Amino acid sequence: MKYISTYIQDILRQRGYSLRRLATDTGVSPSTLSRWLSGGQNPSTQSCQKLAESLSVPVEHVLAWAGHLEPMQRADLSALPEFREYAQQKYPAELDEDIVAMIEDLIQRRRSRLHESH
Hints:
mainly alpha, 434 Repressor (Amino-terminal Domain), 2 domains, elongated
């Protein structure tokens, strides 16, 4: 349960959300969210779905953080395609070179910020 509380705290901090706003967005009461944060209660799979939808994050991540799924193994990053390759395969007509370069830059900035915070 420590993991879901860490996840929710990170989301609140990163997005500048209050507990009340998260409660409104998810349809989960502030007291229930408080119990999740304190480790007094673990969210149900249905609540994990609501949380994922309202935060626009993969439900699998929330389920894993809540302990409903086995923790995801870190992928061998060398086996994953680079964003540019993925984008060309997934969105060949929608993304031009400028957009891909901009997204790559944003990804790199995010990685740098995450690296600095750890």
